[in-house]
């Protein structure tokens, strides 16, 4: 990463201010950028209105730029030979694209932009360059260098913010030198206290000379949770190639045998854990699978309900805290914390699915606290992290062929071309097993590819010998390099007294390996081992060491299911067997949704990057079960991050999960927003639309004696459900221009932030069918995507509904005023919208005080600002600069008032006073 006088986002551990101070700074910056954007728009309008004098616009912009470059941060740029030419070029650009530049400035203001992408920047792979006279970026660079000595930091002497103009050649030399050193894998700059460059323009700089005067303070690492929330999900399973509906043979043991009734749907819960201050959230998945987990869906739900209730009733100071860095180390601290939490909540034991879901949510919460995507946070905090590769961004996966596939099925039937395929064998005829393996091989069409099998303990030693002999006909035995291993080929080895021991299971597997030369993998045996030792990692480790000594062995890998074994235990086992035993570690899912699959992929990526014995083989991971599901609960879906070659883009997936909360999960609550919002059939006075189970709260209106159709002022009504989260808002306002004009301006969706200051941005997606919206309230961002359609009957307008993220839908219509004969016309804007309030803000939507705020501030000011913005645009287009300036001044005043209100704690205090 190369940063040249570029805002790098908030640097962890340099924050010496309170959160309130930071919020004040953000608001001040936001208002400053908005004022500048409006100034640019104003100048652009003045220039465009002077078409008869084409030299006016360049003169206006030239004066603006000269004043702009007088600022101290530009240093001596005005004395540079290229300055005049630069101003001329930028004058020409501004004269043509002033409105576009203003829009970019407004939407790219740092407080409106997420800094999540910067949080994953690794200092040792970063070059940061600032001009000596550019105080702001010098301070940032020095702060960063103070705490990250591996950062490559350069100050260009005597230069300001315009480095690419003043010092273009010098910057090119710096980038070239940095890139060459990175390519040759020379230790990054900053590993010593001296930065030495061959380029003469950069002196040797000692770290002590760069020491920032800013007081540094480590970000607090002690954290605690405040609440737990959850919602159920239901995903249909489909297997179009199967002879029977659903997916057969799921689970372990005899339950894997083909049955007449397959698994047709996947039930589970998405859980959310919030920090005690409510500012950060983490999500996880709890989805027990029949014939794998001992607990049922209902039992898991009851336990989640118990946890949520007890958390809400216990004193916050009684809830134990955890050290974020220790949690992320996955060295046992996470398990200890959950045990202490259970003790406080008076819960003896958690179901495995519930425990793994809590681990996911707490891990997500911890990564938010350190401002790093999950897989990078795990790498950075891993034991012996200096030995763990940080260059991990992709993960190879294997495909899956289930037991109930028809005999003609092959890998060529699949869209994704995985390099490895797992074939379910056992519990069916030997001929069927071999035929499915043969079809899988043929599906590679001559391409290199490998196969693994999963027997789920479906053979005894005799029948497995027959299977191994039949494998020889396929010419895929290990000598060919195409057969990887078979998971748990032999039935469970039980002693006469009913006990099970790993030693006896492995002894049988080793005998079989010595006879048949087919490598095996441990799956069910790992779970049995944990049960035998009551999930004591030290005891499990010692048992594995005693069984797998230095003698030759046929164990290729162990299979790890985080949703059953737990996340922390799975990764600890993976690290151990790779580093100490030279055995591989493959992560698989239990038909999880995209959430569970994502966490398994994060663990698999970290495992693959961890130290291992020489010769330890690395296999693709078993996370392709998403292909048997008709949908996902995350958007974009887990499958969208996988290439046609079967490789998962973990880096992009991890960034998408960063800060993700329950409100952003798609289709968790299918009942949400079930009420229809009808179109107006004729001009009518606004009627409230109460949500189910609620009473409407309406604002009085003034009747217009001159018209029976149109209201003479703003009118609105709101209603909320008993939970306070389902809100319906209906409003109307007269507009002094035609419905055609109003509709054309309003449906230009990227312009919405001009009259809705709480909207940070609205942008069309690449497909052109959806828009992405960002709402920002008190420093918290809420994202959603929506589909919209223009309507023409009975009135012009627009209808929309969110497709992901914050749930909302609505319709806006522009109703002409009956009998209006004026030249510009008039109309009424009618708004009907429903939304589900985000959980972090749901408490704000309880009580008539807040409903009044929604009606009389948020909606009223928004519609009035829309009216005034359009009036101002029309005035400027007609050449009435005085009226246009006055209207935009009024809009700016309201925008500032709204931003200040939303950024303050006044709304919360209002509720507190009411309570």
Automatic annotation (TrEMBL):
<dbReference type="GO" id="GO:0016829">
    <property type="term" value="F:lyase activity"/>
</dbReference>
<dbReference type="InterPro" id="IPR029058">
    <property type="entry name" value="AB_hydrolase_fold"/>
</dbReference>
<dbReference type="InterPro" id="IPR023393">
    <property type="entry name" value="START-like_dom_sf"/>
</dbReference>
<feature type="domain" description="OSBS enolase-like N-terminal">
    <location>
        <begin position="259"/>
        <end position="317"/>
    </location>
</feature>
<dbReference type="InterPro" id="IPR029017">
    <property type="entry name" value="Enolase-like_N"/>
</dbReference>
<feature type="region of interest" description="Disordered">
    <location>
        <begin position="682"/>
        <end position="707"/>
    </location>
</feature>
<keyword id="KW-0479">Metal-binding</keyword>
<keyword id="KW-0456">Lyase</keyword>
<protein>
    <recommendedName>
        <fullName>OSBS enolase-like N-terminal domain-containing protein</fullName>
    </recommendedName>
</protein>
<dbReference type="Pfam" id="PF21508">
    <property type="entry name" value="MenC_N"/>
</dbReference>
<dbReference type="InterPro" id="IPR036849">
    <property type="entry name" value="Enolase-like_C_sf"/>
</dbReference>
<dbReference type="InterPro" id="IPR041338">
    <property type="entry name" value="OSBS_N"/>
</dbReference>
<dbReference type="GO" id="GO:0046872">
    <property type="term" value="F:metal ion binding"/>
</dbReference>
<keyword id="KW-0460">Magnesium</keyword>
């Amino acid at each position: 990463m190369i940063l040249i006088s570029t805002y790098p986002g908030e640097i962890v551990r340099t924050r010496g201010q309170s959160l309130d101070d930071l919020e004040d700074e953000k608001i001040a910056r936001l208002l400053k950028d908005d004022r500048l954007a409006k100034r640019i728009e104003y100048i652009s309008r003045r220039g465009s209105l002077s078409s008869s004098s084409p030299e006016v616009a360049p003169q206006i912009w030239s004066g603006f730029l000269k004043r702009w470059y007088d600022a101290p941060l530009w240093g001596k740029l005005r004395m540079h030979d290229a300055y005049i030419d630069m101003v001329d070029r930028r004058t020409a650009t501004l004269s043509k694209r002033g409105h576009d530049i203003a829009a970019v400035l407004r939407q790219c203001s740092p407080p409106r932009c997420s800094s999540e992408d910067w949080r994953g920047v690794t200092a040792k792979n970063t070059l940061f360059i600032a001009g000596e006279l550019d105080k702001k970026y010098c301070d940032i660079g020095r702060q960063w260098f103070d705490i990250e000595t591996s950062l490559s930091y350069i100050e260009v002497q005597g230069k300001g913010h315009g480095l690419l103009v003043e010092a273009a050649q010098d910057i090119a030399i710096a980038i070239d030198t940095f890139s060459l050193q990175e390519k040759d894998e020379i230790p990054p700059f900053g590993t010593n206290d001296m930065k030495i460059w061959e380029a003469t323009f950069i002196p040797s700089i000692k770290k002590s000379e760069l020491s920032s005067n800013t007081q540094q303070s480590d970000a607090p690492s002690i954290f605690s949770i405040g609440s737990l929330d959850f919602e159920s999900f239901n995903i249909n399973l489909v297997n179009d190639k199967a002879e029977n509906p659903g997916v057969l043979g799921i689970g372990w043991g005899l339950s894997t045998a083909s049955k007449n009734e397959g698994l047709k749907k996947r039930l589970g819960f998405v859980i959310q854990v919030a920090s005690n201050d409510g500012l950060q959230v983490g999500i996880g998945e709890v989805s027990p699978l029949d014939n794998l987990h001992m607990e049922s869906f209902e039992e898991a739900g009851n336990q989640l309900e118990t946890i949520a209730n007890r958390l809400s009733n216990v004193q916050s100071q009684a809830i134990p805290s955890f050290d974020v860095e220790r949690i992320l180390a996955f060295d046992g601290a996470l398990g200890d914390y959950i045990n202490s939490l259970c003790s406080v909540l008076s819960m003896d034991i958690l179901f495995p699915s519930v425990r793994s879901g809590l681990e996911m949510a707490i891990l997500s919460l911890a990564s938010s606290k350190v401002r790093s995507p999950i897989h990078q946070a795990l790498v950075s905090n891993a034991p012996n992290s200096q030995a763990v590769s940080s260059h991990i961004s992709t993960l190879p996966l294997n495909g899956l062929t289930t037991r109930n596939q028809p005999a003609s099925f092959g890998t060529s039937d699949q869209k994704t071309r995985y390099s490895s395929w797992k074939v379910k064998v056992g519990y069916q005829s030997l001929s069927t097993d071999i035929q499915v393996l043969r079809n899988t091989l043929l599906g590679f069409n001559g391409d290199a590819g490998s196969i693994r099998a999963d027997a789920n303990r479906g053979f005894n030693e005799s029948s497995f010998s027959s299977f191994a002999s039949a494998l020889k006909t396929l010419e895929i035995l290990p000598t060919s390099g195409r057969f990887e291993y078979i998971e748990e080929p032999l039935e469970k080895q039980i002693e006469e007294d009913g006990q099970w021991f790993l030693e006896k299971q492995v002894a049988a597997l080793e005998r079989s390996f010595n006879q048949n030369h087919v490598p095996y993998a441990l799956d069910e045996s790992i779970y049995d081992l944990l049960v035998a030792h009551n999930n004591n990692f030290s005891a499990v480790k010692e048992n594995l060491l005693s069984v797998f000594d230095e003698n030759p062995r046929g164990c290729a890998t162990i299979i790890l299911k985080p949703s059953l074994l737990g996340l922390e235990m799975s990764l600890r086992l993976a690290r151990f067997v790779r580093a100490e035993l030279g055995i591989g570690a493959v992560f698989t899912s239990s038909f999880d949704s995209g959430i569970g699959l994502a966490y398994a992929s994060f663990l698999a990526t970290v495992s693959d990057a961890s130290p291992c014995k020489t010769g330890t083989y690395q296999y693709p991971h078993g996370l392709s079960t998403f292909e048997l599901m008709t949908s996902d609960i995350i958007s974009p879906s887990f499958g969208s991050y996988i290439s046609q070659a079967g490789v998962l883009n973990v880096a992009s997936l991890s960034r998408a999960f960063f800060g993700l909360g329950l409100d952003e999960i798609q289709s968790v609550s299918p009942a949400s927003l079930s009420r229809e919002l009808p179109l107006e059939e004729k001009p009518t006075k606004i009627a409230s639309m109460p949500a189910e189970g609620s009473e409407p709260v309406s604002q009085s209106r003034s009747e217009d004696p001159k018209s029976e159709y149109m209201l003479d002022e703003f009118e609105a009504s709101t209603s909320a459900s008993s939970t306070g989260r389902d809100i319906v808002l209906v409003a109307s306002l007269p507009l002094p221009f035609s419905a055609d004009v109003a509709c054309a301006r309003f449906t230009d969706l990227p312009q919405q932030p001009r009259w809705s200051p709480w909207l940070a941005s609205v942008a069309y997606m690449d497909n052109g069918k959806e828009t992405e919206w960002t709402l920002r309230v008190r420093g918290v961002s809420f994202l959603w995507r929506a589909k919209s359609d223009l309507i023409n009957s009975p009135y012009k307008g627009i209808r929309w509904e969110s497709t992901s993220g914050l749930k909302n839908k609505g319709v806006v219509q522009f109703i002409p005023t009956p009998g209006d004969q004026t030249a510009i016309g008039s109309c009424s804007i009618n708004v009907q919208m429903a939304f589900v309030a985000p959980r972090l803000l749901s408490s704000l939507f309880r009580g008539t005080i807040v409903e009044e705020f929604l009606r009389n501030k948020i909606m009223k000011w928004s519609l009035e600002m829309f009216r005034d913005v359009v009036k101002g645009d029309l005035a400027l287009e007609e050449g009435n600069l005085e009226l246009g300036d006055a209207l935009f001044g009024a809009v700016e005043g309201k925008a500032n008032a709204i931003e200040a209100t939303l950024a303050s704690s006044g709304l919360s205090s209002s509720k507190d006073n009411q309570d």
